[in-house]
Structure prediction request, 280 residues.
Amino acid sequence: MSTVLSVSIIIPTRNCREILSRLLDSMDRQTFRDFEVIVVDNFSTDGTFELAVKRARAFQHGPERHVQRAFGASHATGEYLMFFDADMELDAGLVAECVELGRSGMDAVIIPERGGGTGFWAECQKVEKECYWNDPWMEAANRFIRAKTYHQAGGYRTDLIAGEDFELHDRLVKHGSKIGRCGSMITHYEDTRFWRVVKKKFYYGGHMGQIFKEAPTANTRRFTLIKPAYVRNWRLLASHPAHAAGMIVMKGTQFLAGALGLLLGVLRLNGGRVKKTGSS
Prediction:
């Protein structure tokens, strides 16, 4: 008799009641049913936690999503861990395919993403995400991981606010984990409000100094303006000229915001060190 495998799906949330329902609905449609859903809510004020209590194991914990993910993993019972954001939607066979890959010996699985939503900027984002398919720098095995592998590697680092997904992937590779890739996808309905996204990139840019210091080559390839993924997919971009142009404007503005945030973050860090040294 074969062993029944179980999965713990962990979702960090904050003020996302409406979009969380879409993700949970897609979980209800999964062809593989042996899983639990753990929502770790960062003290929402819009009813997100109340919804989560009705449909999942729900906790309240913060202050950032990497801390919420680590907290959820510490309360998980599944042999495999899956991590999703509230603005995602899963193909119906995704969990089943990942479990099958786990049964075949994979320790972690890369799950590709397609863009979701409507409107010009959403279409630009869809082109961008397609550029990342099968790219060794932009896809990361941080969505589906064998629990034993996750804990042996040290899990999500709680001292990182930005780049924690890539950092975990790099650590899994360094530990010699067997990593597969599935054909089922996540549809990611990321925020496409232009200046709101720019503001978010500025915030995360301010916390990127640590991962650039630890892995400068890999993270330069990931976060540079002209990514290798864009060069490799020049035919795709050429076939969508308007949206490719919009993507260049979008990513260029985001890059400048992130770079400014990074610069100010480094200056704050160095200023703090000078002050500490001078006061000793």
